[in-house]
Amino acid sequence: MADLFWLTKAQIRRIAPYFPLSHGVPRVDNQRVVSGIIYVIRHGLRWRDAIGQYGPHETLYHRFIRWSRLGVFNRTFACLAGQAGEPDRLMINATHLKAYRTAVNLLKKRRCSPPYRKDQRRPELHAPRCLRGKGPTAGPAAHRGRDGAITRARR
Question: Which pTM does this prediction carry?
Answer without folding.
Answer: 0.54
